[in-house]
Specification:
Helix content: 40-55%
Strand content: 5-15%
Radius of gyration: 27 Å
Strand order of the largest sheet: 3-4-5
Length: 500
């Protein structure tokens, strides 16, 4: 082969690899043999390019920059390598001339990013969708969106967020920090430009709304009085967090404060200016809106009798955040608390103080933020449409999700749901099952079953209950969690109904 590589030279190289490595010729070779021949040819291309680059570097005495990178979940590499080497069109044409479909061959390569039956939960992968870029079939990166959705049906990641929806609610585009926390838009007064990178949230203090409802004994006047008192308590707690950070020197964490992860401050400079004026946010969280409304009105917040009270609770918290911000120049924001393990703690505290109140405290969990209760029979589209109004009142962070069965063979339905999300709500995801039994190789939904008064996980095929030999992944609150949860969260997962 010569450099540059042509369709004919690649065709000849593929033919030679088949003969020398597999003892066959193009007309008799299998798809797997041709796939491996392609890999061997591209390895030769890389080697020759490497020799050529080294020779030119030495001759021209060019500077060298060494970059060490750990590639994680890199996915299929054959087509990407051909593209990066600048020979993808020629390779596709060569394969066609030899009687092979390049698209079919590329699909045969194992997808390293999917692992061996286990869903990796970090790093979080987020795919941004924007009109004119990847949303519509004619957009240049539409094929990448299709691949992202296909991957999500198998491993739940990547999360998909929609550019225009984020801008509508938060003022400008920025990816969520982790599972659901969003920053509001912020204009740098020095440059007049919106700043998306390097900003941060300083943490959250969460109000347990069902407790306030139970303390009020259903008296709405008393509810609002107690609610305001608890919100002020949260305010004081948030101020304690803020004041503790004031005066911190950038030297405490140079990577964060001096080298650009969050800012580029001087040595010995405090981080104080980053804590005010909207550069960072600090969050009021809330949990159990459903239980609160159910107790106060006798209805779910999805019912017309309960919705107005639910919206009033949300508006009160937003008004308080605005009031605190105006008084202090600290950017308070309302945040839908994920309640990863706290759901169990809150529920047990309520049971200890108020006993088992039917429909309110009789489960070992309370509902995340504004979500529809996990046992409520509601279809995906109605749920998303309903919860979209609450996301608008939770600008500091929110995520909705719908429970779905295995969608690997129904990408068309996934696209339809995602289109509805794009048209109606800021941030929402699909909850599918991504489990694997290491004992028998079962690749399906691991079940939750009772055992001696507790809930445990069991493979439905071989009945393995050894948690060390079960890979289980669930979106518990926004984040995807693996390898089991406390009894409260496990009960919540077991109670979930399908929405599609």
């Amino acid at each position: 082969m010569t450099v540059p590589f042509t369709t004919q030279s690649l065709q000849d190289a593929l033919t030679a690899k088949l003969a020398l490595n597999f003892g066959t010729e193009p007309g008799e070779a299998t798809d797997q043999e041709m796939l491996k021949a392609c890999a061997l040819v591209l390895r030769d291309v890389m080697a020759l390019r490497g020799v050529q680059t080294a020779k030119e570097t030495k001759k021209e005495q060019k500077k060298q920059v060494h970059y060490l990178s750990l590639e994680f979940l890199m996915g299929r590499s054959l087509m990407k390598n051909a593209y990066n080497l600048g020979v993808l069109p020629e390779l596709k044409e060569a394969l066609g001339n030899l009687g092979f479909k390049s698209g079919d061959l590329f699909e045969l390569e194992p997808d390293a990013g999917l692992g061996n039956g286990e869903t990796p939960i970090f790093p979080i992968q987020i795919f941004r969708v924007k009109e004119g870029v990847s949303y519509n079939p004619g957009d240049p990166n539409y094929d990448l969106k299709q691949l992202a959705l296909e991957c999500a049906t198998k491993r739940m990641y990547p999360d998909v967020i929609f550019y225009e929806n984020i801008v509508k609610i938060t003022g400008s585009f920025k990816a969520p920090m982790g599972c659901r926390s969003f920053l509001q838009g912020w204009i740098d007064p020095k440059t007049g430009k919106d700043v998306e990178d390097g900003r941060m949230n300083l943490g959250v203090v969460t109000v347990n709304i069902p407790r306030i409802a139970l303390e009020s004994h259903g008296d709405k006047d008393r509810f609002w009085k107690i609610f305001d008192e608890r919100l002020e308590l949260c305010h004081r707690a948030l101020l304690c967090r803020h004041e503790r950070l004031m005066g911190t020197l950038s030297d405490a964490a140079p990577i964060l404060w001096q080298y650009g992860a969050l800012a580029r401050l001087k040595k010995g400079e405090t981080i104080d200016k980053l804590l005010v004026g909207g550069y960072s946010t600090i969050s009021l969280g809330y949990a159990g809106l459903y239980e609160c409304v159910k107790y106060m009105t006798g209805h779910s917040h999805t019912e017309k009798e309960g919705t107005p009270f639910a919206m009033a609770v949300m508006q009160r918290m937003n008004d308080k955040c605005a009031e605190w911000k105006a008084a202090s120049d600290i950017d308070f924001s309302l945040y839908g608390t994920p309640l990863e393990s706290t759901t169990y703690k809150f529920a047990k505290c309520l049971q200890k103080r108020f006993g088992l109140v039917p429909g309110i405290t009789d489960r070992n969990y309370i509902t995340n933020s504004y979500h529809v209760h996990v046992t409520e029979q509601i279809d995906a589209f109605t749920k998303l449409k309903f919860e979209s109004d609450f996301q608008k009142l939770s600008p500091g962070g929110a995520i909705s999700y719908v429970e779905v069965p295995n969608m690997q063979d129904n990408l068309e339905a996934v696209i339809k749901v995602m289109q509805f999300i794009y048209e109606n709500i800021m941030y929402a995801e699909l909850n599918t099952k991504s489990d694997y039994c290491q004992v028998c190789g079962y690749d399906g939904e691991i079940q939750i079953v009772p055992e001696d008064g507790k809930l445990v996980w069991e493979c439905p095929k071989c009945h393995n209950r050894d948690q060390n030999k079960l890979n289980v992944a669930r979106r518990t609150c926004g984040y995807i969690g693996t390898q089991f949860w406390n009894q409260g969260r496990t009960a919540e997962i077991k109670d979930r109904v399908l929405h599609l």
